[in-house]
Amino acid sequence: NSHAQQLNTNSFPDDFLFGVGTSAYQVEGAWNESDKSENIWDQLTHNYPDLVIDGSNGDVACDSYHHIDDDIAILRNLGVDFYRFSISWTRLLPNSYSNVISETGLQYYNNLIDALLAANIIPMVTIYHWDLPTELQKLGGWANPIIADYFADYAQVAFEQFGDRVKYWITLNEPQSFCPGYGSPNQAPVNVAEPGIGEYLCSYTALKAHAKAYHIYDERYRSTQQGVVGITALSNWFEPNTTSPEDIAAAEIAKQFNVGLYMHAIFGRDGDYPEVVKQAVANRSALEGFPFSRLPELTEEEIQYIKGTADFFGVNHYMTYVAAARDPDEIGEPSMEKDRGVSAWFDPSWEGAASSWLKVVPWGFSNLLMTLNNEYGYPMYVTENGYSDYGEIDDSRRTNYYQLYLSAVLDALSNGANIRGYTAWSLMDNFEWLDGFVNRFGLYYVNVSDPRTIKSSGEYFKQVIATRVVTTTSATVSTNGGST
Ligand code: GBH
Fold first, then answer.
1. What radius of gyration, in Å, describes the C-alpha atoms of the chain?
2. Model pLDDT, residue 427
3. Cα–Cα distance between 169 and 127 in angstroms, integer?
4. Ligand 1 centroid from CA 99, angstroms
């Protein structure tokens, strides 16, 4: 009853799931093992190493491809309920297409999944975590809507091959993060930059790709496999700078350009893109002389096809910003940032991490979770949350971070948010994209030639999982900088 729950607000419900996450390019290595072909991250790191802080790449990474047993051992030691990992598209489908399924790729994921199940760990599988086949990028990648069909084709192979054992599927990881690559020359895919156009084409294709995969699952696999299919959003919190209506509206617009643009069509009660986003892009497009909005229009048929295509909302959370209204930019070259037209920054009083974009603002997390709960009303899994440093074994700031952020989850739970699980990012230090191996998120320290080494935060997370309680003994309590 509710009274009993209130007495227990610092402990998680019995059926709440704890896990840790990684992604294929960040941990697997074995980039050209067997018949695996090249993806856009192989291409970026090999041909443009200067874009990565330390010039490193994922050729070997944590060498998880050759260390299934070691990865299982550390997952067991933590006592996690589930492990979130991703499939490498070009390892499974070396041609990009389902006409050829790699025997060795299949074997690797079968071995990993079987080893997890034998260890009593639930596999939670991300189908796409940013490593698009280079061959598909040659066709335009996510800027070409036909890629939605090829993604769905790939997803179908994953369901078909692994769905007897995998019951948690995440179609796409953070379109918010991979779509900006189509508006900037310095991110994957490198040298593709159509700002204010590419990002929106990508968001459109991503929606169609996700929806198609979901329908395939629904029609062909759900009744026999009985799993769930969701999608993961990079979910930021934007706190209005002041209580002025302008700043409150600015924070709302920023939220809709972050989560709404990519998720409202799926989770929003009426589907489609958020009205504020449609209007903002259409207005500037017209002023810039475009004959139609740079944001592709969803037809009524597409709106209905995409709406409701998820069993859960995956929340990746790292960032809280302060948001304020600002004067519109002058009309010139299009950009998504100008379409949004909001100023956003980090409050200088917030504690930082190794990553310049990561601050410790736990109240932003609880506000975000409540807002997502109220706005969409779907079951939520936190599919990533974590803290970067430079790889210290005695990582007290990361432990502190988990104490604060897990408490924020408990706050949201006690306020009625429907949160089913939490994933710490990351199981282990790994190839941190453009931050190379410099900024590290692991509960385990990894230097590929040494055994994986647990950090003090790993010991802490292990204790949380075992007790289902967030102990706050040594936590530095962050002051509430402006909870709404
Ligand atoms: C997640 O993205 C990823 O899903 C995961 O693979 C990654 O390891 C993890 O974060 C930690 O980074 O430098 O100002 O241009 C988080 C979203 C998107 C946050 C890109 C940083 C760059 C900001 N990230 N963003 S900036």
1. 21
2. 99
3. 7
4. 33
**Residues of the chain predicted below pLDDT 70:** 1-9, 473-484
Q: Is 297 a catalytic residue?
A: no
The catalytically annotated residue of 28, 174, 239, 375 is: 174
CA-to-CA distance for 271 and 263, rounded, in angstroms? 9
C-beta 177 within 6 A of ligand 1: yes
Pocket test for ligand 1, best of 384, 405, 435, 438 (most atoms within 8 A of CB): 384
CA of 177 to the centre of ligand 1 (A): 7
Alpha-carbon distance values, 257 to 73, 111, 148, 200, 429 (Å): 41, 40, 22, 11, 30
> Ligand 1 centre and the CA of 354: distance in Å?
12
Phi, psi of 93 (to 5 degrees): -125, 85
Residue 24 Cβ inside 6 Å of ligand 1? The answer reads no
Q: How many CA atoms lie within 13 A of 432 on its CB side?
A: 24
In the block, residue with structure tokens 């892009």 = 281
The number of residues making up the chain comes to 484
ipTM, 2 decimals?
0.93
Could you confirm whether 174 is annotated as catalytic?
yes
Q: How far apart are CA 447 and CA 437, in angstroms?
A: 10
Choice among 302, 375, 384, 432 that is catalytic: 384
Contact predicate 382/419, CB 8 Å: yes
Of 68, 71, 69, 76, the residue nearest 108 (C-alpha): 68
Q: Which H or E run includes 128? A: strand 122-128
Q: Rounded CA gap, 443 and 395, in Å?
A: 9
Does the reported pTM lie above 0.90?
A: yes
Query: What share of residues in the chain are helix, strand, coil (percent, to 5)?
Result: 45, 15, 40
Q: Answer yes or no: is the C-beta of 384 below 6 A from any ligand 1 atom.
A: yes
What is the best residue among 85, 177, 262, 438 to mutate for testing ligand 1's pocket, by most ligand atoms within 8 Å of CB? Answer: 177
Rounded CA-CA distance 46/40 in Å is 10
